[in-house]
Amino acid sequence: MASNKLNVSEFPDAFADKRAETGIGHMDDQNDPVDMVLRLKDLRKAAHNAATFQSGAKPGRIVIPSEVAIRETRQIPFEVDPPEHKGYRDLVDPWFKRPLEKNYRERLQAIIDETIDTALAADSVDVVSEFALPLQSKALTLLLNTPMDKAQTWIDWGTHVFRSEDSDLDGDKASILYDYIDEEIDKAIASPGEDLYSVLLASEVNGKRLTKEEVKGVMILTFAGGRDTVINAVTNTIAYFSENISDLKRIKDEPEIVNRAVEELIRYFAPLTQMGRVATEDAVVCEHAVKADTRISLCWASANRDEKTFADANKVDFDRKVNPHVSFGFSHHNCLGATHARQILRQLVVSLAERVESFEALQADENIEQLGEFSRKVGFNSLQMRFSAK
């Protein structure tokens, strides 16, 4: 008799064959082709070479799919190259390291506990829209240092900032975010507080006060950069544990492995597939010619499965000793929100291990990215799951 059990924890390596054959993939993005760098060594080299492969191109162009059609504001410090990048990064880094503080962690734990309570009390929940999205949105209030009631507005936007059912790039939906940020900046100008908007407005970089447009650039990055990625990471982690409950029990019995486990889950799932750069001159990547003013992709998801670095790369291994994954980027533009994302996942998996006996996947709709010659599972559009308490 056939089993009706869903298999939701597997995330196949879409790039294995091409990575082994040539190290380069190709995709078209709105008539702006992209050469995809698939091997870890080549990716790290290109990411470190900001002079040849720049981030500070036309705003929105290094994102894949390109956002040049839906925004003109430069995301900061994401779309700024060295040496200017350093001044912005030095300004915002201390703020984004706050998740390590005791008070922050305690407030985050209360959000996680409430989210798990809700899931355990329900017959079932959609882990995407009813667990990961509220958790991400409420945690964002801590990162911005704004009132918790703001989170409901962000939850109502849905799981994607720029994407709708009809389009991967929905300009009208993006405008909702941009208008919201403009309004919040104006409120902070009129009545400064201790939130991130106010802190940025009162700050200087390289001896100059940040402009409203620069503050908006930081805030767009904060909202957009940490939304889908955190939602994917949380959802995919629960999907994994639903079929590998012994690994969750290990975290309860061996708390010393928590950090290793989180890094391994982040490597395996790679919540963001890739990020682009624009060539400033003719160059060569992995023996492939790259023309000036064309784009390359730093394909994090492929590099994280590179067999030359990761033994048994397609296996989740909480005992992996060497794990130089690039899920949070590499070099100058390593992810600004990495500390925040790691802290959410650390506290979440510990709490799940203490409180949840099992998960049962009831219905799943996979989110498959179409990337030229590749099709990659990045997460789920929906994942209906039953949580059982210990």
Automatic annotation (TrEMBL):
Pfam families: p450. It comes from the Bacteria. Gene3D superfamilies: Cytochrome P450. PANTHER family: P450, PUTATIVE (EUROFUNG)-RELATED. Belongs to the cytochrome P450 family. This is Cytochrome P450.
